[in-house]
Amino acid sequence: MRRVLIILIALSALLAATACTGSSRSSRCSGSSCTISLTGEQTVDVEFGTFERSLRVAPIEPANVTVSARGEQARLAVGQTGVVGGLAVTLTSVSGRDVGLEVRRR
User: Fold this and answer.
1) What's phi and psi for 39, nearest 5 deg?
2) In whole angstroms, what is the distance from residue 96 CA to residue 11 CA?
3) How confident is the model over 65-90, as pLDDT tens digits?
4) By three-state DSSP, how is residue 15 classified?
5) In 3-state terms, what secondary structure has residue 31?
6) Whether 60 contacts 99, CB under 8 Å
7) How far apart are the C-alpha atoms of 56 and 61, rounded to whole Å?
8) Consecutive H or E run containing 105
């Protein structure tokens, strides 16, 4: 029984590590805007004081990125801004799986 438990723990750790592979992000926030850089499709939590939103970034295409929050979505090309879930999101760059966003509270 103990051996089975050890194997299950090892498999769980492996799955958790695999789930994180291929995605990363960094952000800088100042006042009412955040600059977000990320790699791979993911959900990013955006906070401005007590205002919080989960911003989904997916799919990432060669020239477009779709962002969504609170049931609203926008497909953006570089330089375009869309409003989703009370956030104004500007796509500043897309290169392969790397995405740059500027996010402001609307």
Assistant:
1) -125, 125
2) 31
3) 999 999 999 999 999 999 999 999 99
4) helix
5) coil
6) yes
7) 14
8) strand 98-105
